[in-house]
Amino acid sequence: MKDALEVVALFLGFVGWVLVYVSLEDNYWKESSQAESVIVTSTVYENLWRSCASDSTGVYDCRDFQTLLALPGYIQASRALMIASIVFGVFGLVGALVGMQCSKIGGKNYVLKGRIAAVGGVFFILQGLCTMIAVSWYAANITQQFFDQLYAGTKYEIGQGLYIGWSSAVLALCGGACLLCACQFKSPNEKIQYAHQRTIRGHIRSITATSGTPSNYGRNAYV
Q1: Main subcellular localization, coarse class (predicted)?
Q2: pTM of the complete model
């Protein structure tokens, strides 16, 4: 049960880590709304790194953001959180691989391996939290501008890149939780006997052996 849970945790953490890359490379974090347009001639969509536009014929053009300091604060924070998520995911994968009981990496010190696996689970949870905060913050700004009647700029809708990011966060959180739960399980062979129990049993055996030895003195020794 413990080994299977660790394998499931590693799989969930790895898939969540891969989806972070997929979400970052996806251009559709937000897409221009077509709710108020009868005839759609062009579509504008953006992510954390670039802005793209496509027309009705399918021709599109993308350009990277030229400066970092001129970007809105939530975009800069989302960038930092997604990069931190990738770093935490790397540490989580390394900790899970080294700390798994079925892995030969790190020797046979299962107490140390269990602690390393627990640290890997914490890193997976941090990865999921960073991704969840980044995509949720980005989506909150999209919805705030969309429902603001006084906002005169282009209104956007939530793109598919955010949904991939949410999926990545959920998988990473589940993988970290499974890895932490696996560290709590102990098989019967891993139970440690107390040293004082063996001492007491040995003391009882020595007393029994002493009492059972024949004495050199007979019943009439003092007569």
Answers
A1: other
A2: 0.75
